[in-house]
C-alpha cells in the first residue's frame, strides 16, 4: 500500500483549493501508488460556524475592504494573532479530529491556516502524531500560519524565510518552493509572445469574481488600441449576468466567461492580463509569461502580492481604479515594455508543486 496523504484546503477564495489540487495532481502523476485525498475543510454544513466564518470573510472583502485591512493588520501582531489563532483553531479542531480518524494519513498538507491551526491544536494535545506541512499561498507570511507543531513551511519567495524567522520559526522548517499551480499552465505558448497583431485583454476578478470588475471593463472599453476583451466572472453569477446586460452597450467585442477551465488558454492568447493580485492567479500569469496589471487589491496580502510582482518586473499595479485605463493604455503603446515584462515573468518561473511534493516525500521517509 502506498503513502496516505491528506491535503486540506478551505474554500475561502479559490486559490487555496487550486493549490491543493495542484499538489494532488503532481503527486498522483509521480506516484500512482500514493493515496491522495483532498478535502475542503469548509465545504460541508449549510449552517455552521465554518460557513458563518466563510460568509463573513466574503462580505468583508466585497463591501468593507477597509475593515478587512484592520483585521489583517491587527491579527498580524504576535499576541493579537495568537488570540485569533486560538479562537479559530479550537472551534475547528473537532472537525479536524474526525477527518483524521477517517483518513488515517501519513502526512497532513494544509494550504490554508485554519485547518493548519486545527491540526496543530490536536498535535499539541497529543491527539495525533502526524507530520504537518503548511503550504503558504501568498507572497507574504502572516502570524495566522505560525504554530510550533507545524513540521515544514513551504513558502513562495526567499524574503518569506526572513519573515518566518522573525516569527521565531526554525530555519530548518522553512523551504522555498514557490506556489503550486496546475500542470496545464506549464504548456508552452503556441506562438511567441507579441507576434499576434490582435491586442487582447483578459480581465479577471479572481475565482470568486470579487472586486470592481464591471467598472474595470467599462474603463478598459475606452482604452485606444484594444481589439477585444475577455472577462472571467468566476463563480459570481450576479456579475456574470450584469456583464451580459452591459455587453452590447460597449464599443469593443466582449467575451464573457463564468467559472471556466480555459484560463490557461485565455492567458496564452492575452496581450495583457488585468486582474486582482491573488497569489495563485499571479503565479499562473508568471508561468504563462503574460504581462499583468493589478487593480482592486485586497488590503494586506494582495497589496503585498502586487508590490512584489511590480518589483519583479512582471506586472504594473494600478493603485486606484481611476488610473486603470491610463496604466493599460500606456503599456499597450510600449511593446518593448510588454516584452520585458514577459521575459521577467518567464525568468521567475518555478514548479511549486514539484518542489513541495519532493520535500513532503522526504518528510515521510525520514
Going by CATH, the homologous superfamily of the largest domain would be: Glycogen Phosphorylase B
Strand content: 5-15%
Oligomer designation: single chain
CATH class of the largest domain: Alpha Beta
The main sheet comes to: 6 strands, parallel
Instruction: Sum up the overall morphology in one term.
Output: elongated
Poorly predicted regions: 45-50, 52-81
CATH topology of the largest domain: Rossmann fold
Query: What is the β-strand count?
Result: 12
The secondary structure category is: alpha/beta
Distance between the termini: 18 Å
Along the chain, the helix and strand elements come as EHEHHHEHEEHEEHEHEHEHEHEHHH
The name of the CATH architecture of the largest domain is 3-Layer(aba) Sandwich
Cα gyration radius (Å): 21 Å
What does this molecule look like?
- Strand 1, helix 1 (15-30) and strand 2 (35-40) form a beta-alpha-beta unit.
- Helix 2 crosses helix 3 (65-76).
- This protein has two domains: 4-178 and 351-365, Rossmann fold (3-Layer(aba) Sandwich); 184-348, Rossmann fold (3-Layer(aba) Sandwich), CATH 3.40.50.
- It is elongated, with a radius of gyration of 21 Å.
- The model is unreliable at 45-50 and 52-81 (pLDDT under 50).
- It has 366 residues and is of the alpha/beta class.
- 48% of the residues lie in helices and 14% in strands.
- It has a six-stranded parallel β-sheet, with helices on both faces.
- The chain has 14 helices and twelve strands.
- It has helices at 15-30, 49-63, 65-76, 78-103, 113-124, 158-166, 213-220, 237-247, 263-269, 279-288, 301-312, 324-332, 335-348, 352-365, and strands spanning 4-9, 35-40, 107-110, 132-135, 152-155, 174-176, 200-204, 228-232, 254-257, 272-275, 292-294, 315-317.
Amino acid at each position: 500500500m502506498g503513502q496516505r496523504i491528506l491535503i486540506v484546503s478551505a474554500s475561502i477564495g479559490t486559490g487555496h483549493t487550486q493549490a491543493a489540487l495542484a499538489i494532488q495532481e503532481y503527486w498522483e502523476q509521480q506516484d500512482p501508488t500514493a493515496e491522495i485525498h483532498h478535502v475542503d475543510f469548509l465545504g460541508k454544513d449549510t449552517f455552521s460556524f465554518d460557513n458563518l466564518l466563510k460568509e463573513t470573510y466574503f462580505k468583508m472583502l466585497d463591501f468593507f475592504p477597509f475593515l478587512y485591512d484592520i483585521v489583517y493588520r491587527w491579527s498580524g501582531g504576535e499576541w493579537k494573532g495568537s488570540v485569533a489563532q486560538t479562537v479559530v483553531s479550537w472551534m475547528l479542531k473537532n472537525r479536524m479530529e474526525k477527518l483524521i480518524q477517517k483518513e488515517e494519513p501519513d502526512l497532513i498538507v494544509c494550504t490554508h491556516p485554519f485547518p493548519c491551526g486545527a491540526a496543530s491544536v490536536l498535535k499539541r494535545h497529543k491527539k495525533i502524531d502526524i507530520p504537518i506541512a503548511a503550504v503558504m499561498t501568498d507572497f507574504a507570511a502572516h502570524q495566522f500560519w505560525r504554530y510550533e507543531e507545524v513540521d515544514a513551511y513551504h513558502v513562495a519567495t526567499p524574503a518569506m524565510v526572513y519573515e518566518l524567522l522573525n516569527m521565531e520559526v526554525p530555519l530548518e522548517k522553512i523551504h522555498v518552493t514557490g506556489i503550486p499551480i496546475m500542470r496545464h499552465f506549464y504548456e508552452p505558448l503556441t506562438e511567441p509572445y507579441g507576434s499576434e497583431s490582435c491586442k487582447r485583454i483578459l480581465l479577471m476578478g479572481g475565482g470568486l469574481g470579487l472586486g470592481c470588475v464591471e467598472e474595470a471593463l467599462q474603463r478598459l472599453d475606452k482604452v485606444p488600441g484594444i481589439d477585444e476583451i475577455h472577462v472571467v466572472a468566476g463563480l459570481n453569477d450576479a456579475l456574470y449576468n450584469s456583464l451580459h446586460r452591459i455587453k452590447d452597450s460597449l464599443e469593443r467585442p466582449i467575451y464573457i466567461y463564468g467559472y471556466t477551465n480555459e484560463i490557461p488558454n485565455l492567458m496564452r492568447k492575452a496581450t495583457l492580463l488585468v486582474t486582482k493580485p491573488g497569489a495563485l492567479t499571479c503565479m499562473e500569469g508568471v508561468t504563462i509569461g503574460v504581462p499583468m496589471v493589478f487593480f482592486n487589491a485586497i488590503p494586506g496580502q494582495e497589496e503585498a502580492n502586487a508590490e512584489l510582482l511590480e518589483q519583479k518586473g512582471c506586472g504594473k499595479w494600478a493603485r486606484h481604479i481611476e488610473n486603470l485605463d491610463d496604466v493599460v493604455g500606456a503599456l499597450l503603446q510600449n511593446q518593448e515594455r510588454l516584452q520585458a515584462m514577459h521575459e521577467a515573468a518567464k525568468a521567475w518561473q518555478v514548479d511549486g508543486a514539484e518542489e513541495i511534493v519532493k520535500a513532503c516525500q522526504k518528510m515521510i521517509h525520514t
